[in-house]
Amino acid sequence: MEKIKLEIERKFLVKDNWPQPATGMHCIQGYISANKQKIVRVRIIDDKAWLTIKALKTALTRIEYEYEIPLDDAKILLENLCIKPLIEKIRFIVSEFDNKWEIDEFRGENSGLIVAEVELKEEDQLIKLPDWLGDEVSHDPKYFNSNLVINPYKNWEN
Q1: Of the four listed, 2, 20, 78, 93, which is most buried by Cβ atoms within 10 Å?
Q2: Which domains does the chain possess?
Q3: What pLDDT is stored for residue 59 in this prediction?
């Protein structure tokens, strides 16, 4: 039997002093299914597309399967099957303390929100946190991208 594919990540808000690279990747994604326990996501980053299936295992760990799909198929799925609004963001990659941070600067309905994620090998893995990170939001479901579709950042009382 094959090993289950897992994604373990922690998520943080980002302060104004983060080291923003000159270029990022344009990302648009939508959800065919977006409930608390499982999601089906379509994502386009620049000129490539993926279909991702995730299921919640623990607060930090999800079962995750991701498959590259044709770009035209992804565009059709985003337009016709995904819950609106779609998630739009620019993703930047920053390496700090031997960790790769994916920093998402949201656009559209979620403009103003900037979140950093780091993938881990184990839930209790110790990592050094850069000083440009703010509060940890790993356990707050309102920061899940799938929930940002249902309750966009622009609707929050900040």
Answers
A1: 78
A2: 6-155 (2.40.320.10)
A3: 80
User: If you write DSSP's letter for every residue of the chain in order, what string do you get?
Assistant: -PPPPEEEEEEEEE-TT----S--EEEEEEEEEE-SSEEEEEEEETTEEEEEEEEESSSSEEEEEEEEE-HHHHHHHHHHTSPSSPEEEEEEEEEETTEEEEEEEE-GGGTT-EEEEEEESSTT---PPPTTEEEE-TT-GGGSHHHHHHS-GGGS--
CA–CA dist 157, 153 (Å, integer): 9
- Residue 151 — very low, low, confident or very high, per pLDDT cuts 50/70/90? very high
User: Quick check: is 67 catalytic?
Assistant: no
Given a contact cutoff of 8 angstroms between Cβ atoms, the answer to whether 39 and 82 are in contact is: no
CA distance linking residue 16 with residue 100, whole number of Å: 19
**Looking at the whole model, is its pTM more than 0.85?**
yes
Please tell me which residue in 31, 65, 67, 143 is annotated as part of the active site: 31
Contact status, residue 119 vs residue 8, Cβ threshold 8 Å: yes
Q: For all residues of the chain together, what is the average pLDDT? A: 94
User: What is the token pair recorded at 35?
Assistant: 């409930």
